[in-house]
Amino acid sequence: MPLDPQARAFLDQVAAMGGPQLHEMPVADARQMMELLSQMTGGPIEEVASIEDRTIAGPGADIPIRVYRPRPGGSSPLLVYFHGGGWVIGSLASHDGLCRALANAAGCVVVAVDYRLAPEHRFPCAPEDAYAATRWAVEHATELGADPARVAVGGDSAGGNLTAVVTHLARDRGGPALRFQLLIYPATDATLSMPSMRENADGYLLTADDMRWFYGHYLRTPADAADPLVSPLRAARCAGLPPALVVTAEFDPLRDEGEAYAAKLREAGIPVTLRRYDGMIHGFLPMVGVLDQAKQCLAEATRVLRTALA
User: What is the C-alpha separation between 145 and 305, in angstroms, rounded?
Assistant: First the structure.
C-alpha cells in the first residue's frame, strides 16, 4: 500500500524543519529531538486517577519509575512498560502521554521504567534494569493497587526489544510469572540483515543509518549483536514465554524482524496475534495527535490487553 497521507504530511513537516538526521547528531541533541517530536505528535494529555514518581533499587544504580493508576483503590491488572528510543534516547517524559492512555484504556496500573541509557550505560544495563524493575513491580503490586497474578510487559521499538528480553529472563531466572507481552514494532535482530532494513532504509523517520548509530552506542563490541539478550530473534528457544501481540508498520526498517519474531514464537507454540499497520512508519503509536492509525492501534492494543489480563 502507499504511505498513509497523514504519515506523509508528518514526514514533510519534519523535513521542513531542516537540520541534521538523527544519526548525524550528538546524543544530547538527539534526546532533545525525541522530546520535541513527542510534544508535536502526542495529542491531548489524558488525566488519570494518580501519577507517582518513585525510585527503586537497581542492579547498578537506582531506577526511576512512574506509576499510573487508572482508578483509585481496587486491584487492577499491571503493565510494566519500557519506552522506545534505541536504548539511547527516550524517557519517562517522552512516553508520558502514551502511558496515560494505556492506563485508562486498558484499565491497568502502568509502571513506566526509566532504564539506564547508552552510551553512558551500554548493554546489558538496559535489560538488567528492565528485568529488575519488572520483579520489583510484581513484588510490590499490591501496594501499587495492582494484582500480582495479572501482569503484562510491553514496550515500543527498543522497549519492545526489552519486553521480549524480559520474558526470556523471567522464564530462565524463575519468575516473575507474566501473563502477556505487548511488542510494538520491536527490534529483535541486531544484524540489520532483513529485507525491510533495505527496502525502508531511508525516508520514513527511522533509517538504517539510525539503527547503526543506535547499536553503535548500545553494544560494547560488535560481538554483542549475536547475544539473544540483544537479538531475541537469535534465542535458542521460545517455549514457555507468555502470549503476545506483535505490532509492525509497513514502512519500518524493523518490520521484518518483528514479524520473524512473531513467527518464531508461534513455532514454539506461543499464542501470537500479529498485526501489520499498512502505510505506517516506525514510532507511530504515540502519535495520536497526528495519525488516525495510532488511535486505532492504541484501541486494538488495549482491547487485547484487557482480554489477556481479565
Answer: 18
To the query of whether residue 282 is one of the catalytic residues in this protein, the response is: yes
pTM, full prediction: 0.98
First to last CA, the chain: 35
Q: Which residues pair with 63 in a beta bridge?
A: 56
Supply 74's cell numbers.
481496587
**Distance between CA 115 and CA 132 in Å, rounded?**
10
Using alpha carbons, select from 99, 162, 176 the residue that is nearest to residue 126. Answer: 162
Q: How many residues does the structure list for the chain?
A: 310
**Does the annotation count 91 as an active-site position?**
no
Q: What is the mean pLDDT of residues 6-13?
A: 97
What CA–CA distance (Å, rounded) separates 225 from 229?
9
Phi, psi of 109 (to 5 degrees): -70, 125
The amino acid sitting at 152 is A
CB of 164 closer than 8 Å to CB of 127: no
- Identify the three-state secondary structure at position 211: helix
Q: What percent of the chain has pLDDT over 90?
A: 98
Clarify whether 83 is annotated catalytic. no
Over residues 19-44, the pLDDT tens digits come to 899 999 999 999 999 999 999 999 99
Q: Which of 96, 129, 210, 252 is catalytic?
A: 252
Cell numbers 481479565: residue:
310
Sign of CA dihedral 266, 306, 44, 90: negative
Q: What mean pLDDT is predicted for residues 126-130?
A: 98
User: What is the extent of the structural domain holding 61?
Assistant: 5-308
Q: What's the CA gap between 260 and 32, in Å, rounded?
A: 32
Which one from 83, 168, 217, 282 is the annotated catalytic residue?
A: 282
Choosing from 157, 168, 217, 231, which is the catalytic residue?
157
CATH classification at residue 181:
3.40.50.1820
Q: Report the number of distinct structural domains present in the chain.
A: 1
Q: What share of the chain is helix, strand, coil (3-state, %, to 5)?
A: 40, 20, 40
